[in-house]
Design a protein that fits this description.
- The complex is a heterodimer of chains A (about 325) and B (about 800).
- In chain A, about 10% of the residues lie in helices and about 40% in strands.
- By secondary structure, chain A is mostly beta strands.
- Chain A has a domain of about 100 residues: TolB, C-terminal domain (Neuraminidase).
- In chain A, a hairpin with a 7-residue loop joins strand 16 and strand 17.
- Chain A is elongated.
- Chain B is an alpha+beta fold and about 800 residues long.
- Chain B folds into 4 domains: about 190 residues, Multidrug efflux transporter AcrB transmembrane fold; about 150 residues, no CATH class; about 200 residues, Multidrug efflux transporter AcrB transmembrane domain (Multidrug efflux transporter AcrB transmembrane fold); about 140 residues, no CATH class.
- Chain B is built from 27 helices and 12 strands.
- The N terminus and C terminus of chain B are likely disordered.
- The chains are: A mainly beta (about 325), B alpha+beta (about 800).
- Chain B: Keywords: Cell membrane, Membrane, Transmembrane, Transmembrane helix.
Chain lengths: ~325, ~800
């Protein structure tokens, strides 16, 4: 047999090589599947320390510890009869310390006391799906949440529990946006151009009718005594006397505005349909169009560094640096 | 080429039977001739019915679980057979001008009246179903985009531009930069639940005519869709006929160079054409057509036919030169070659039959057509050719030069030099080189990709008009053409779209799928439902959610309208369209794997997710079927050939000597595919089986002579190999070159997959002969006794003779 050994060895070697060559090939490596922050609706953004929290579509809460470079899903535990959260969340707010609150459809409120890492539902409505739209903490420590059909809730225990606030709203307008000041004042913008205001940290509220009949989606405190409300089809109104008198501000935009914020240097930014970004550099007296004409709506935003905004909208999270257009023009001249 | 010693030996019963057959055949030669002419005439006439049949459904691996309900949902959710026509404005400004709109309107109406168009699903700017809605303080305004009486005044054009913006159709029916508008329609594949035989080629031609009619200095028309791929393929097929002509001419030249006789050249060509003509007549009779892959069978049959004809005419010529009469030479040629030649053809046929194990109709038909052709060749080559040969006389020119190519001094010297490989030390060097090449190739072969590699329609070259159009449309719109569709079946709900548990289950899946690497976007009923609900609330995105109550979900009712095409009545079935970046095989497999991972964990009562439809679903199923078939096919073909070799030669050494070179060449083939960026897919899967099925002939012929010379003539190994090469080497080389050249002409085909097949088959045919003349003697050197079987010769001559003669 020895004389055949090399031939048989060769045949076996080729056999082994063939098995190697034709052995089922494995797939190349692909990045793991994870929630893609640019592919889900984001309705609210908040920040606690360095941590960004974005809430939105189908109960997703995303958090980022590197100013928005990477996002991951926060953990949501069971609570208030909810085992798996699928209600869309509409807004998130930091309410002091490491506590954050998120509100959304089904009247749901979620609470986190570790700066957004883990969340627990503290309230939900089994019967109706009506959404809550807004939440903020007044300077007295009371937390106010507002929502559809004139719903107004109050918490005096840092958001652990909520109770309804009785307020006279005959038309039951949707209460779409809220702003809290540091002097006890708070203002809520609503449907049919109705605005609720409180001067005592949300203990008592009265209703103001603006000279308009459309929906208002939000309100921003633009200066010490200047408040700006915004809404449907580019309508923006300003008041210098906490809502006694309002005047309309012509912006040139005809797209609905859904979100607003004030930057550290005092600029007021309004966000809306068609990727609209309006900016006021005069404390909310007038607005210029920073950007307009996209296809998707911007809904919420927060300033993460001077002039740098993290935005949320129908196409998820995006970043915007303010004043780039102006700077580019100046450079050109 | 065989049988020069047979007349002197005692006959076995098998040989006597073959002899009787040869006598009968030649006694009845005029009857055979008349029959042959009659059959050829009849089948040639029948061949007029042959149809080009590039049906989509034949490409589907129907046994794959993904495809089980394909037919059911293909009728419910059309979409895989959609045609998109894009009109692009090349002139100044955007498309909102009178010229463009006039042409667009005309084109839309022309499209509507094309044959085989599902007229309920023709959609464009001009369809009344494409509407805009606008939110105002008082409520909604909504209307079709194009005004009822559209006279294309500047005012109306401006109105249309605004309506398009309000309708949110930019990126879908209108291009991103306002210079493109689209017309979409479905090909009517079913009418009243019955499949309709669509004339794709005619429809493609009509669409090409429309394109030519509307294209101008300012307007470009792009058309994509399966129909257009079919059109391009059929056009490419017609071009293939020219390649057949070229291949025919090259073969003629090679044949003449080899035999130096126009009579033999002509006879070989005629006889090689016979099975092609017969096949052409038989296919329509069994209800089969010629598709883009089986069109290659005539080339293959013709090449194999020529190579077998060469063996027969060569044997006949040798006898005639030896002084026999034409008819006696024919008889001897038949006796010598009928059995081994038929066996070789049966081996070929076996190779093609193995291909039929692949459960994809188009491949099965390739296997069937090719096997049929090979079986016909037993009649044409082994029976009709000897009859024809008996009727001619060899011209003097061929007599004079008869030995030049086949048996000249130079040739003998080369073969003697080559026979050095049948000695131990050189053989070891051949082993080292072969093993090194095999190992290197194996490393390359690991990179072989399953499925398509590249963009657009992989059947066509990247520069083909279709792929250019596809690229243009993809860049100008937000649409994708690579869609994985998952069907959601619901049971126990009267209106499943109004059920919160159903809708959130689908919604969860939608959100998950959006996060899979390689997915660009996802379209599902709940996603549209959320959009509609937000739209009903003045377009406020914060309302975009799925309410728990049926009444709340009903607000999104427009999204559940079956006319949109995403769900059936009552949402008994819904589809989720997942748009992929491309349809590269690896990406498709990854997305399917990730989708399966989610669905394994998803348990919602009454909700079943079913994979997978859409062109990517078909690609995934096809790739899986191809991958699964690859190993099975390799094992079958190598198993079958090994068994056949073992039964023929009754020795394991024979099997090793013949199979090892084939194995190495198969590894080379996979490595070549990986290096050339050719994916393993429906069109390339059969290549190895075809290559091995045909290539095994060389090994068998040479080994048969080798062992015959050793056992029967008592020659030592090197002498025996030299004799084998002298008798069969030239014929084998000639055959390999003829076949290789014949299929290599496909490399210039307008169809990329034909070019791929041509290059690979050409490589296989050529390199297999090298395996047989270089590696086979080396293996023999280390497996067979160097000094031959002289000792055994006297002991068992009859058995050995029978073994040797059975080939």
């Amino acid at each position: 047999m020895a004389r055949k050994s090399l031939g048989i060895l060769m045949a076996m070697l080729i056999g082994v090589i063939a098995v190697y060559a034709f052995y089922p090939r494995s797939l190349p490596h692909f990045p793991a599947t994870e929630t893609n922050p640019t592919r889900l609706r984001i309705n609210g953004i908040a920040m606690i320390g360095e941590r960004l929290i974005a809430v939105g579509e189908s109960g997703h809460i995303l958090i980022s510890d590197d100013t928005g470079q990477h996002w991951r899903d926060a953990r949501i535990g069971p609570g208030a009869g909810i085992t798996r959260l699928d209600a869309t969340l509409t807004q998130v707010a930091a309410v002091g310390g490491k506590i954050a609150l998120a509100v959304g459809h089904d009247g749901v409120v979620l609470r986190s006391d570790d700066a957004g890492e883990t969340w627990t539902p503290v309230r939900a409505e089994a019967e109706s799906s009506d959404p809550l739209f807004a939440v903020c903490r007044t300077s007295t420590g009371t937390i106010i949440a507002a929502g559809s059909f004139g719903r107004l809730l109050r918490s005096t225990d840092d958001g652990a529990s909520f109770e309804p606030v009785a307020v006279d709203l005959p038309d039951e307008p949707h209460l779409n946006g809220i702003a809290c000041a540091d002097d006890g004042k708070a203002m809520i913008a609503g449907e049919m151009a109705q605005v609720l205001r409180s001067r005592d940290g949300g203990a008592t509220w009265d209703m103001v009718q603006l000279p308009y009949n459309g929906s208002l989606y939000g309100v921003v405190q633009a200066g010490p005594s200047r408040w700006v409300a915004f809404g449907l089809l580019g309508h923006v109104f300003g008041t210098d006397d906490f809502g006694d008198s309002w005047s309309e501000i012509k912006t040139g935009a005809e797209t609905s505005l859904f979100g607003g914020l004030k930057t550290a240097d005092g600029r007021v930014v309004l966000l809306g349909q068609g990727s609209t970004v309006l900016v006021s550099t005069d404390g909310g007296k007038s607005f210029g169009i920073e950007r307009i004409g996209g296809r998707d709506s911007l809904v919420a935003g927060i300033e993460i560094a001077p002039g740098r905004l993290m935005l949320g909208g129908e196409k998820g999270i995006s970043e915007l640096t303010l004043g780039r257009t102006v700077a580019a023009l100046a450079g050109g001249q | 080429m065989a049988g020069t010693h047979s007349h002197a030996a005692p006959r076995t019963s098998g040989q006597r039977l073959v002899e009787a057959c040869s006598n009968l055949l030649l006694r009845l030669r005029f009857v055979v001739l008349v029959l042959a002419i009659g059959i050829t005439g009849f089948l040639g006439y029948e061949a007029r019915n042959i149809q080009l049949d590039p049906g989509f459904l034949k490409l589907i691996p129907s046994h794959h679980p993904f495809m089980q309900d394909f037919m059911k949902y293909a009728t419910i959710f059309p979409g895989h057979n959609r045609v998109v026509l894009n009109m692009h404005w090349k002139g100044d400004g955007d498309m909102y001008n009178k010229t463009f709109m006039t042409e667009m309107e005309k084109l839309a109406s022309d499209v509507f009246f094309l044959p085989d168009v599902d007229r309920t699903r023709v959609t464009s700017l001009f369809s009344p179903t494409v509407r805009f809605t606008k939110v105002t303080e008082e409520g909604f305004i909504g209307a079709p985009i194009i005004p009822e009486t559209f006279t294309k005044t500047d005012e109306q054009l401006a109105q249309v531009r605004r309506n398009v913006e309000d309708a949110g159709i930019i990126g879908r029916y209108v291009g991103n930069d306002g210079r493109d508008a689209m017309i979409m329609f479905e090909v009517q594949e079913y009418s009243g639940g019955q499949p309709v035989r669509v004339n794709y080629y005619e429809l493609a031609n009509k669409l090409d005519e429309l394109r030519a009619k509307y294209e101008s200095a300012d307007i470009e028309v792009n058309v994509i869709g399966f129909v257009m791929i079919v059109g391009a393929i059929v056009d490419g097929l017609l071009g293939v006929i020219a390649f057949f002509g070229i291949s025919f001419l090259i073969t003629t030249a090679l044949l003449y160079l080899y035999c130096r006789s126009w009579k033999l050249t002509g006879l070989s060509l005629v006889v090689a054409m016979l099975p092609v003509i017969w096949l052409g007549g038989l296919l329509p009779m069994v209800g089969a057509g010629i598709d883009p892959i089986s069109i290659l069978v005539p080339f293959l049959i013709f090449s194999i036919g020529v190579s077998h004809a060469v063996q027969m005419t060569n044997a006949w010529k040798q006898s005639v030169l030896g002084g026999d009469s034409s008819i006696h030479a024919s008889r001897k040629a038949f006796q010598a070659l009928f059995v081994p030649g038929s066996l070789a053809l049966i081996t070929n046929g076996l190779g093609f039959l193995v291909i039929m194990r692949i459960q994809i109709d188009i491949v099965r038909e390739l296997g069937m057509t090719a096997s049929m052709g090979v079986m016909l060749m037993i009649v044409t080559n082994k029976m009709i050719l000897p009859v024809l040969l008996s009727l001619i006389t060899l011209e003097p020119s061929a007599r004079k030069r008869a030995h030049a190519v086949d048996d000249g001094e130079e040739v003998r010297k080369s073969w003697w030099a080559l026979s050095l490989l049948a000695t131990r030390k050189p053989a070891a060097v051949v082993f080292a080189i072969s093993a090194a090449l095999a190992a290197l190739s194996a490393v390359y072969a690991r990179d072989l990709k399953t499925g398509d590699v590249g963009q657009g329609a992989p059947e066509l070259w990247p520069s083909d008009r279709y792929n250019v159009d596809n690229g243009a449309i993809l860049s100008r719109y937000d649409i994708g053409t690579d869609i994985l569709t998952v069907i959601v079946e619901t049971t126990g709900f009267s209106e499943a779209c109004l059920d919160h548990s159903v809708m959130t289950a689908v919604d969860r899946f939608d959100l998950y799928a959006r996060g899979i690497n390689g997915v660009q976007s996802v379209l599902s009923v709940p996603a549209i439902g959320k959009m509609v609900i937000a739209g009903m609330n003045e377009g406020n995105p914060r309302w975009a959610g799925l309410p728990r109550s049926s009444q709340g979900l009903a607000v999104g009712g427009y999204a559940y309208n079956p006319d949109i095409g995403l769900n059936t009545e009552g949402c008994q079935a819904m589809k989720v369209d997942i748009f992929l970046k491309n349809h590269d095989g690896a990406l498709v497999a990854h997305v399917v794997e990730e989708v399966k991972r989610f669905l394994d964990a998803e348990k919602t009562p009454g909700v079943t997710f079913r994979l997978a439809f859409g062109n990517v679903g078909v690609a995934a199923a096809t790739n899986e079927a191809v991958e699964e078939a690859e190993l099975e096919m390799l094992l079958s073909i190598f198993g079958a050939i090994s068994l056949l070799c073992f039964l023929t030669f009754r020795s394991v050494q024979a099997v090793i000597c013949i199979i090892v070179p084939l194995t190495i060449v198969s590894i080379f083939c996979n490595a070549l595919m990986a290096r050339l960026g050719i994916g393993l897919k429906v069109s390339t899967l059969p290549v190895i089986a075809l290559g091995v099925g045909v290539g095994v002939d060389y090994g068998i012929y040479i080994y048969e002579r080798l062992i015959h010379e050793m056992r029967h003539e008592g020659r030592p190994l090197r002498q025996a190999f030299y004799e084998a090469m002298k008798q069969r080497g030239t014929a084998a080389l000639f055959t390999a070159i003829t076949m290789s050249v014949g299929v290599f002409t496909w490399a210039f085909s307008a169809l990329k997959f034909q070019a791929d097949m041509g290059i690979l088959l050409s490589f296989m045919f050529l390199v297999n002969v090298f395996g047989a003349i270089f590696l086979l003697p080396a293996l023999a050197a280390w497996l067979l006794p160097e000094k031959g079987y002289a000792r055994h010769r006297a002991a068992e001559p009859v058995v050995d003779r029978a073994v040797a003669q059975s080939r």
